[in-house]
Amino acid sequence: MLQLLNMINKSFLKYLCCPKCKKNLTFIENNLTCTICKIKYEIKDDIPILVDPGSITGHLKYQIDYFENESSKRGKYIL
Questions:
Q1: Residue 39 belongs to what H/E stretch?
Q2: How far is CA 39 from the centre of its chain?
Q3: Which DSSP helix (H) or strand (E) runs through 3?
Q4: Phi then psi for 4, rounded to 5 degrees?
Q5: Interior CA angle at 45 toward 23 and 9, to 5°?
Q6: How far is CA 3 from CA 6, 28, 34, 62, in A?
Q7: What is the pLDDT along the chain (79 residues), one digit of tens a residue?
Q8: pLDDT at 38 (0 to 100)
Q9: What residues contact 31, with CB distance under 8 A and at least 6 apart?
Q10: Is 32 helix (H, G, I), strand (E, B) or coil?
């Protein structure tokens, strides 16, 4: 978690906003959380996923699951 907190630091947070209401995000429990609408945005592989979880359709969920399954077979990509 310390590594994640270092990646998502306060200076970086000032450039991000909630995609739904455009308000500030805070780092809470390994997620970025909107200060107004309280939507939690997941962080995967040190990348904030700024998509409203409620807007993901069935087909898009299938695609996400498929590509996550494929990428898990290859391991983590490191530069």
A1: none
A2: 11
A3: helix 2-7
A4: -65, -40
A5: 45
A6: 5, 14, 21, 30
A7: 445 555 556 677 888 899 999 999 988 888 899 999 999 998 887 788 888 878 889 998 899 889 888 888 876 667 6
A8: 92
A9: 40, 41, 42, 43
A10: strand
